[in-house]
Design brief:
The chain is an alpha/beta fold. The chain has 20 helices and 28 strands. Helix content is 39%, strand content 20%. α3 runs antiparallel to α5, α10 packs across α11 and α17 packs antiparallel against α18. The longest helix has 27 residues.
Length: 623
């Protein structure tokens, strides 16, 4: 990308991508500026997608790129403006998004002011009544159009994710893009079924005649605060889940990866999502906190650290705002002595180093049966040494850089803490000096224990610490010895034992002979107990956390009064006492006596109780 940067009056606008550049058709670069070969003094805006016409007297393009622009006639740059009410909005404060692989600037993104954040929330609130009332079929069309657009622009999204996050091209395609397409496909088809009322047949015999059901209704404006580790996939999961529930959304992406979220907004605008239904505002943490306490926000969805999650929970409590928090994991992998060793080693290395270990569900602890510890460690080490680390845009690269410097430093801190306490670093753990970005070699550690941060705190980096166990019960105890409870995996050929261990593990998701795939399975819930967070996302059960579950009961039986209404005059107390015995006594003789007692009060029973309820009351004799 060779230092071809576009500036205006000293303001960095983005990296110039030529149409003959290998990245030109793949990198997200909106708006598109067409250079008129007959008059190179102007860049004309195409398709109303940019800053307006720019005079070349105000434009500076570094390098020898000007002649190439004249020859190719097209230059593109990233648009970092906010999206509020489907309009691109500029702001005074800006931030430069940089490639974690090269540390070169990718573009300038706007940071929303307090007023702009309030405008975004208000836009979502104003759009809510129309959006929640829009027929399911119309919503489905929008999501299917978004899926079609994403499919058409998939290479573009892959390149953007790779540039901004640092994951290899193959990973960006298989995880971020494919996962996002599956999300849109699932929720578009699941939409009507998920919101359909569900019958709730009464349990109490006196209520048997009532027609009752659960109704699922949206709550309103939903604030989504998303992280940098999956800057396209996590926002689309959370946003689509909220939108299909009938809510409107304000998305606050990480300031480290703003362009991925803005690309998501572009796709939905192009798909015909009404103004205000999805708003995207990159902003400072203080502005995000203001949105959390905004009374127009009905739900806050947050993915990130425990500390920030607790802060959000504290702020949300001021308005008793509904919260869904996913705060990370320290995910264990248990390898039993009968496991397929090759599969387990391959799985550990992929799940530990994929996305440079920056996943809440990455393998962060490996517990291996002592009988196979040596063989497992040797093979895992061999596979680790074969991992190609480098610029994620290059073919054949398995692992790119870490996305942010602070996380790289935390990984180094955990490795150093483990080493000082007696751990052995068999490979990796040091920065790669001849690469300009946040690169670190994947690490394999042994002789670890639970006094070390590497085994107790979320590392969130490419490290596999291996610890042996002697008994299955020990492995379960070690796996559960954590403040987190997101996911875990069990590796064995024994189906019965796998089922037992899965039952005992204190997590939200257990996978057997695989790890971490479930995040991209839309039907699988995401979340867990302990300090992993509150609530769930994804699938049917995740949907429920974003809706008001309303119980509606209808009674159209033509009775003037109910048995339990006023007045409490005789024989009502006696009738209710007989009913209690009939419903709940464990002796049939007493039940028979109570049933005949009710018959003696038949006029009252008949005048206040429907035939259906009477039959249900009689049926209690047999239960």
């Amino acid at each position: 990308m060779g230092g071809n940067h576009l500036t205006q009056h000293g303001r960095h606008l983005g990296i110039v991508i030529l149409s003959n550049d290998p990245l030109a058709h793949d990198v997200v670069c909106a708006p598109v500026f067409h250079l008129d070969p007959k008059n190179i003094r102007h860049l004309a805006l195409a398709a109303e997608r940019g800053y307006g016409s720019l005079d070349l007297e105000d434009i500076e393009i570094s390098g020898d790129i000007v002649q190439k622009i004249v020859e190719r006639k097209v230059v593109r740059l990233m648009d970092g403006r906010l999206i509020i009410g489907n309009k691109r909005v500029d702001s005074k404060e800006k931030i430069i998004s940089k490639s974690p692989a090269t540390l070169e600037p990718l573009g300038e993104a706007c940071l929303a002011s307090s007023e702009q954040c309030r405008e975004a929330v208000h836009a979502a609130r104003e759009a809510f009544p129309a959006w929640k009332s829009l027929p399911h079929g119309e919503k489905e069309k929008i999501f299917m159009r978004a899926k079609k657009i994403l499919l058409a622009r998939s290479r573009e999204v892959v390149r953007l994710v790779t540039l901004e996050k640092g994951s290899p091209l193959a990973e960006s395609m298989s995880v971020d893009v494919m996962g996002s397409l599956e999300v849109l496909h699932y929720y578009a088809h699941f939409l009507e079924k998920s919101l359909k009322p569900r019958t709730a047949n009464p349990h109490v015999p006196f209520f048997a005649h009532k027609r009752s059901a659960y109704h699922y209704q949206p709550l309103g404006a939903t604030l989504i605060i998303s992280p940098w580790n999956f800057p396209f996939l996590i926002p689309i999961y959370d946003a689509v889940s909220a939108l299909t529930a009938g809510n409107t959304v304000v998305l606050r992406p990480s300031t480290s990866t703003p362009f991925c979220a803005l690309m998501l907004g572009e796709i939905f605008i192009e798909a015909g999502l009404p103004p205000g239904v999805l708003n995207i505002v990159t902003c400072r943490a203080a502005r995000a906190e203001e949105m959390v306490t905004n009374p127009e926000v009905q739900t806050v969805m947050f993915t990130g650290s425990v500390g920030t999650g607790k802060r959000i929970m504290e702020l949300a409590s001021r308005n008793l705002t509904n919260t869904v928090l996913e705060l990370g994991g320290k995910d264990p992998m248990i390898v039993l002595k009968d496991a397929d060793l090759e599969r387990a080693c391959q799985g550990a290395v992929w799940a530990g180093f994929m996305n440079s270990g920056q996943s809440c569900a990455s393998v962060e602890r490996v517990y291996v049966a002592r009988e196979i510890e040596e063989a497992f460690t040797a093979r895992a080490l061999e596979l680790t040494k074969k991992i190609k680390v480098g610029n994620p845009l290059e073919p054949g690269v398995d692992m790119g850089p870490m996305t942010v410097l602070s996380q790289l430093e935390l990984v180094e801190e955990h490795i150093q803490d483990a080493r000082q306490k007696g751990a052995q670093v068999l490979f990796g753990g040091e920065r790669i000096k001849d690469l300009p970005g946040y690169f670190i070699k994947p690490a394999v550690l042994t002789k670890v224990d639970h006094t070390m941060k590497i085994m107790t705190e979320e590392t969130f980096g490419p490290v596999i610490p291996i610890m042996a166990f002697s008994k299955v019960e020990d492995a379960i105890a070690l796996a559960n010895d954590s403040h987190y409870g997101l996911t875990a995996s069990v590796w064995t050929r024994d189906k019965k034992l796998a089922t037992f261990i899965a039952h005992e593990l204190e997590v939200g998701t257990v996978t057997v002979n695989d790890h971490m795939f479930s995040f991209t399975e839309p039907k699988a819930i995401w979340g867990g107990p302990k300090q992993t967070g509150m609530g769930r996302t994804h699938g049917r059960y995740g949907h429920l956390h974003l809706m008001n579950i309303k119980y509606v009961s209808r009674d159209f039986v033509k009775k003037k009064a109910q048995m339990w209404w006023f007045p409490y005059t005789a024989p009502k107390p006696d009738v209710m006492e007989k009913a209690i015995i009939l419903f709940h006594h464990d002796r049939k003789r007493e039940k028979i006596k109570a049933l005949f007692g009710l018959l003696r009060s038949w006029p009252l029973v008949r005048s206040t109780t429907s035939i259906r309820s009477i039959l249900s009351i009689a049926g209690r004799f047999f239960r």
